[in-house]
Amino acid sequence: MKLKELADKLGLSQTTVSRALNGYPEVREETRMRVQKAATTYNYRPNTRAMGLATGRSMAIGHVIPVYSKNEVVNPVFGEFIAGASQTYSANGYELLLTVADAQNEEDTYRKLVAKGAVDGVIVHSPERNDSRVAMLRDIGLPFVIHGRVSEIDLEYSWIDFNNRRAFQQATQLLLDLGHEKIALINGIETLNFAWLRRQGYTHALEQAGIALDPSLMSSAEMTEGHGYSSASAMLKKPDAPTAFLVSSYMIALGVRRAISHAGLQMGRDVSVIIHDDELSFFQNNDPVPQFTATRSSVREAGAKAAQMLLNIIDDPSIAPVSELLEAHLTIGSSTGPLKRLKAANQN
Amino acid sequence: MKLKELADKLGLSQTTVSRALNGYPEVREETRMRVQKAATTYNYRPNTRAMGLATGRSMAIGHVIPVYSKNEVVNPVFGEFIAGASQTYSANGYELLLTVADAQNEEDTYRKLVAKGAVDGVIVHSPERNDSRVAMLRDIGLPFVIHGRVSEIDLEYSWIDFNNRRAFQQATQLLLDLGHEKIALINGIETLNFAWLRRQGYTHALEQAGIALDPSLMSSAEMTEGHGYSSASAMLKKPDAPTAFLVSSYMIALGVRRAISHAGLQMGRDVSVIIHDDELSFFQNNDPVPQFTATRSSVREAGAKAAQMLLNIIDDPSIAPVSELLEAHLTIGSSTGPLKRLKAANQN
DNA sequence: TATCTTATCCAAAGCGCTTTCAATTTACTT
DNA sequence: AAGTAAATTGAAAGCGCTTTGGATAAGATA
Questions:
Q1: Is the distance between the Cβ of A13 and the closest atom of strand C smaller than 7 Å?
Q2: How many angstroms separate the Cα of A255 from the Cα of each of A156, A251, A258?
């Protein structure tokens, strides 16, 4: 069913039908009703492409997910973030265009999207510490919101993030308060800004406490279970093994937990662990007493908010860059406890 | 830069430029070169919407992800599948339109997509045992490929799946061969077809072996870590606790592993576990000796293949429904071993 | 009753592309 | 040299919608 057919059926012009459906005032209320009813009856929906052509807007938002190599990790955080954003989009008649792009030619991907007129704006994922995309997107004038921040740049841009630094500082502080001094950090890739900020929070807290940083207690890689396992295993084998771990994601933590139990230790008693919990739906950490002590911040919520921010910007591009910094909640679970001197050394 | 401008710059008509760019034969080779070079220089890309309007195709594929309630689990398998599909799309000039839809009005979502002319085809995720979407999509004539199958329906349609039934039958058989008889199944939601087929494989193998089914050893729910933990914990507390677990996903298995170790048992020695491994990138199970004995099948590969299938169908809708059944590989890891009589009973 | 508003509605142009139908060259035959 | 076929290019229509610039009818004003 196309506009013309609907108009013919109603004995009206396309103009009037279009206006009735789009809520313009120069249509008699009675006519509008008639039109709307007919539209429902015939399940009429304006053709997106035709509408886009006529209005110059595509009613679509691009999400560009960087992938570093062919078989690279797809961060499950994306799925959750997108689930949040998606709600906002469909509530506002927008579509979500997903592109999985080589990190190499990611800029190209954005340019292409704009040139093709495929999207009205984009959400930028996984910003790096000094991410060139910010400058580029401003250049080409494509509205965007970054999930995360870009610390080492002093341009204005819109973003939403949670307070990585503060969260990890607090978490470290908690471990210090429990008496731990040999605290390991098992982090994501530290060229990515979020991981870098987390590390800052960690080092800051240690420095404040007058504890020297030990590079052998810091590990940084893709956030996989395997990364957690191998890093933690290696650290636990050291003569001066850490008594506590600060861990950047639930996935990593699963590996850490495995390493701990392989080492014959018990999490929460012999070794403390604090994780950052993105509240992924398939990794609930919310038993009455959660497994993991965690700093938590809902990625899904961030997704919904980021999407709304972007739509606002598209509606009125003149509004100054906006941003929102979410605070994480610290939840005490069973994975932390006061420092206890181990009776026997590592029984590896 | 739009077609007209480019044509003007070249002193050619839009017609010729369009033809040159789209590879039509009635253009002198020299002219084509000139046009292509200019297109690159000015970074010209045809406007998707205009092109779509003119050709009647949208060059976009829809992926509809069902969500059952507001805070429902987003299966990480989607992310991986989509990463695979995405490669195929961008190699063929297609876009990927993602919709997260209420399972309730999912049919509506498809109708809407078609009416709006937003997509040329869709990939259907998470089919149920008797999924009404098949009939509906055939009705409205939208090309589609199902990731999975719909067992209880005898319509023809295109699908790609891996052999769930066979995989779980083999896995069960392996456990039987190892001497296990009390074998538990911790499955996904069994109204979903894949889970149903897995259960069939499991029950079939047990029946063949003359072992009575024990409903208390079968559990079915969303595939989360929590599900694995609570189900396995409960079963391990029973007087006749299972000595082996068949588990539908890596995530569930993590919970099972936790339950096993909480029960003071050791996986692979006291209790055997076989999982199905979708080869998610952030859960590599491919150490020299993998943690988990597993049936494996790459979801990412399935995504790429499904996408290619769909594009083929769109190119030539007359081709009969096609399908592909992938076989899973069984990999022996350290989570399985021969049945050993436990010295002490469950020490819970 | 004649004029001016206001409320409704419509014809037609235009969004940027593809594609049909024609026109113009050029190449080839005889 | 004349005529025909093949190669190359363009003009213009059309995809389905929005929106500008009237037109018309009804109501208000004087």
A1: yes
A2: 38, 7, 5
Tally of CB atoms within 10 A around B327: 12
Whether residue A120 is contained in a domain is answered as yes
Structural domain count of chain A: 3
Task: Tell me the nt nearest to A1, Cα to C1'.
Answer: D16
Q: Identify the three-state secondary structure at position A98.
A: strand
Other C-beta atoms closer than 10 Å to the C-beta of A135 total 13
Residue B156 sits in the same domain as residue B34: no
Q: Tell me how crowded residue A26 is: count the other CB atoms within 10 A of its CB.
A: 8
CATH code of the domain covering residue A23: 1.10.260.40
Same domain membership, residue B180 and residue B193: yes
CA triple A318-A319-A320, angle to 5 deg:
110
Would you give per-residue pLDDT tens digits along chain A (348 residues)? Answer: 999 999 999 999 999 999 999 999 999 999 999 999 999 999 999 999 999 999 999 999 999 998 877 667 888 899 999 999 999 999 999 999 999 988 888 899 999 999 999 999 999 999 999 999 999 999 999 999 999 999 999 999 999 999 999 999 999 999 999 999 999 999 999 999 999 999 999 999 999 999 999 999 999 999 999 999 999 999 999 999 999 999 999 999 999 999 999 999 999 999 999 999 999 988 888 888 999 999 999 999 999 999 999 999 999 999 989 999 999 999 999 999 999 764 444 444
Q: How far is CA A237 from CA A241, A264, A337, in A?
A: 6, 11, 21
Q: Is B269 contained in some domain?
A: yes
> Does residue B157 sit in the same domain as residue B215?
no
Q: Are residues A139 and A173 in the same domain?
A: no
**Residue range B181-201: mean pLDDT, rounded:** 97
Q: Are residues A141 and A208 in the same domain?
A: no
Residues of A in contact with B287 (CB under 8 A): 226
Give the model's pLDDT for residue B347: 42
- The strand pairing partners of A100, in sequence order, are A65
- Considering only residues 37-76 of chain A, list those whose CB is below 7 Å from strand D: 44, 46-47, 50-51, 53-55
Query: Residues of B with CB below 8 A from A226's CB?
Result: 284, 287
**Residues of chain B with C-beta less than 8 angstroms from the C-beta of A117:** 47-49
Q: How far is B321 from chain A (nearest CA, A)?
A: 27
Q: Are residues B22 and B67 in the same domain?
A: no
What confidence category does residue B320 fall into, taking pLDDT thresholds of 50, 70 and 90? confident
Q: Tell me, in Å, how far CA of B112 is from C1' of D14?
A: 25
Instruction: Tell me, yes or no, whether A314 lies in a domain.
Output: yes
Q: For CA atoms B50, B53, B55, B61, give the dihedral sign.
A: positive
Q: Please, what is the Cα angle at A222 between A217 and A225, to 5 degrees?
A: 80
A15 touches strand C (CB under 7 A): yes
In a domain, A334, yes or no: no
Distance in Å from the first CA to the final CA of chain B: 72
- Both tokens of A96, joined, read 């979500």
Can you give the CATH number for the domain in which A108 is found?
3.40.50.2300
Residue B206 CA to residue B180 CA, distance in Å, equals 11
What strands lie across the sheet with A60-67, from one edge to the other? A323-326, A159-162, A144-147, A121-124, A60-67, A95-102, B95-102, B60-67, B121-124, B144-147, B159-162, B323-326
Nearest CB to B225: which of A47, A63, A283? A283
Same domain, B14 and B87: no
What confidence score (pLDDT) does residue B166 get?
Answer: 98
Domain containing A85: what range? 60-162+300-327
Residues B110 and B213 in one domain: no
How many A-B residue pairs are in contact by the CB < 8 A criterion? 154
